[in-house]
Design brief:
By secondary structure, this protein is of the alpha/beta class. It is 50% helix and 18% strand. The longest helix has 15 residues.
């Protein structure tokens, strides 16, 4: 059975383009569309979907507000944001609102399907241009940050390396291979990072990592 999709974008040409691409795919089918956040919420009340592809800048109700309202009613639906804005600050706002992924409209069919495949299985997907920019930056040996406003923790150089690879959607095996360590060692770093971040899962860890890396 194909995964059902709602497309939310204020440009009909964009919606038609997505429908043309996705309705030809093996795993996805567009069953509904909306031109703004208000219409999207109305559509979802009468026809729930598995995945929502949403723009951010729209009239009446923008994407961020719409995502927050959707999340209040439904924690299971997957939300992939497509926007012209390739910006870390935008990505953090989108993640905080409750989206599962972020992809710029400048990408093609292959990247769109890749992003949908990723969020469908429960992972997060983030714009690779942004991730590469972060990964190429100079890495300090230690990084101090404030957790919950009052506790100072320290990330080691190795933990920072692991964190960047987690943000880049690498599996524990892939991280181990790149850093020439065992999977068990990566598991240990991941547990330490979750503890220091106060996060419950990978999505929380990615949010934490993007905030920390943005400020350093």
């Amino acid at each position: 059975m194909k995964m059902s999709i709602l497309i939310v974008d204020d440009h009909k040409l964009v919606r038609d383009g997505f429908k043309s691409i996705l309705n030809e795919s093996k795993h996805y089918r567009v069953i509904s569309e909306a031109c703004d956040g208000e219409e999207a919420l109305s559509r979802l009340k009468v026809q729930p979907v598995d995945i929502i592809i949403m723009d951010i800048k729209m009239p009446k109700m923008d994407g961020l507000e719409c995502i927050r309202m959707i999340r209040k009613a439904n924690q299971k639906v997957k939300i992939l944001v497509l926007s012209m804005y390739i910006d870390k600050l935008y990505m953090m706002k989108i993640l905080d609102a409750g989206a599962n992924g972020y992809l710029s409209k400048g990408n093609g069919k292959t990247e769109l399907i890749e992003a949908l495949d990723c969020v469908t299985i429960g992972n997060s997907y983030f714009e690779k241009v942004i991730i590469k920019t972060e990964s190429d930056s100079e890495t300090p040996s230690k990084m101090e940050f404030s957790a919950n406003g009052n506790t100072i923790n320290i990330l080691t150089k190795r933990e920072i390396e692991v964190l960047k690879l987690i943000i880049a959607e690498q599996s524990n095996r892939e991280i181990a291979d790149q850093l020439f360590v065992s999977v068990r060692t990566v598991d240990g770093h991941r547990r330490n990072l979750l503890l220091k971040a106060g996060a419950k899962n990978t999505v929380g860890l990615v949010k934490f990592g993007l905030k920390v890396l943005r400020n350093h």
